[in-house]
Amino acid sequence: MIPDTILYTVPQWFVFVAIIASVYGWVEQKKVFRLMGAVLFFLLGIFSLYALLTGSFSSREYLTPAEIISHEMEEEIFEELPFSAQLFPAYIIFLLSGLLSVPAFFLQWRELKGKNLFVILTAFTSIAGFFIIVDALKSL
Predict the structure, then answer these.
(1) Would you give the DSSP letter of residue 81?
(2) Is the pTM of this model over 0.70?
(3) How far, in Å, CA of 35 to CA of 12, rounded?
(4) 32/22 Cα distance (integer angstroms)
(5) Residue 120, in any domain of the structure
(6) Is 94 exposed, middle or buried (0-12, 13-18, 19+ CB in 10 A)?
(7) Disulfide-capable partner of 91 in 24, 41, 48, 104 (CB 3.0 to 4.6 Å)?
């Protein structure tokens, strides 16, 4: 089992459930589900912020200062990026998605113009993060 399993499974479930709730609320005209989708995107942003701040993507696990000093910089290294380093851009995108979900929530709550635009932007940014994770899983 891969030790970074939580790093790629939890965001995928958040994205699926949030998009399903948003689409269901949009099609059936149920405000509760539309708001729940925005809240789930916000929770995805909180999870990504937590993962970024706790050091899940820290480089100290891969290189020590002694390795950097002793390494000859003239040689080219053709090693693949570590798996968690490949997931890093997805977490930045999920953080952006969480930020976009805040105005989406308030616009939907107040039934103001532009609510659909922010929901679509939030969904597309989270889908972009999802596909970054899928691409990183191909390298395993």
Answers:
(1) P
(2) yes
(3) 19
(4) 9
(5) yes
(6) buried
(7) 48
Residue 118, classified by CB atoms within 10 Å of its CB into exposed (0-12), middle (13-18) or buried (19+), is buried
Confirm if 89 and 132 have CB atoms less than 8 A apart.
Answer: yes
Burial 55-81 (b: 16+ CB within 10 A, else e): ebbeeeeeeeeeeeeeeeeeeeeeeee
In a domain, 64, yes or no: no
Quote the DSSP letter at residue 4: T
- Residue 71: inside a domain: no
Work out the angle between the directed axes of helices 5-27 and 83-110 (0-180°, nearest 10).
20
DSSP assignment of 65-80 = HHHHHHS-TTS---PP
Task: Identify the domain containing residue 103 by its residue range.
Answer: 5-56+81-138
Q: How many domains does the chain have?
A: 1
| Residue 67 located in a structural domain | no
| Nearest partner of 94 among 12, 31, 5, judged by Cα | 12
> Each residue of 81-136: pLDDT tens digit?
778 888 999 999 999 999 999 999 999 999 999 889 999 999 999 999 999 999 99
Residue 91 structure tokens: 């977490």
- Cβ partners under 8 Å of residue 17, min gap 6: 40
